[in-house]
Amino acid sequence: QVQLVESGGGLVPAGGSLNVSCVASGIIFAGNAMDWYRQAPGKQRELVATLTVTGNTNYVDSVKGRFTISRDNAKNTVYLQMNSLKPEDTAVYYCHTYVLTARRRDDYWGQGTQVTVSS
Fold first, then answer.
1. 79: number of CA atoms within 13 Å, CB side?
2. Alpha helix locations (H) across the chain?
3. Range 65-88 average pLDDT
4. Is 87 helix (H, G, I), strand (E, B) or coil?
5. Which of 34, 45, 49, 55 could pair with 78 as two cysteines, CB 3.0-4.6 Å apart?
6. CA 42, 48, 49: angle at the middle one, nearest 5?
7. In 3-state terms, what secondary structure has residue 74?
8. Which pLDDT tens digit goes with each residue over 88-99?
9. CA atoms within 13 A on the CB side of 90
10. Burial track 52-89 (b if 16+ CB lie within 10 A, e otherwise)
């Protein structure tokens, strides 16, 4: 069974930093792309950052230059380092991955970790 467990959220003042992490189990971690999504109150969930198996990264424009996604395959962990945080970064942050087979794609989500940035 695939499980994703996030941690590291919290309350931080504007301009501060947080590093959220996600530990994965039940998958061959090194063989999976990993993503971070976020969902603010009243808004749709949005893709924040992606890290492919080969190490390529992609970010939503609003976090480019401030957020960094990374992974430690030995620890089955993906991280999202968030710097220069803004109140608009306030959201629940979710770890995500998917597994492709010949017949289907299964998506997996963590339970989310709350990030609150005070102005």
1. 11
2. none
3. 97
4. helix
5. 34
6. 165
7. helix
8. 999 999 999 999
9. 12
10. eeeeeeebeeebeeebbbbbeeeebbbbbbbeebeeeb
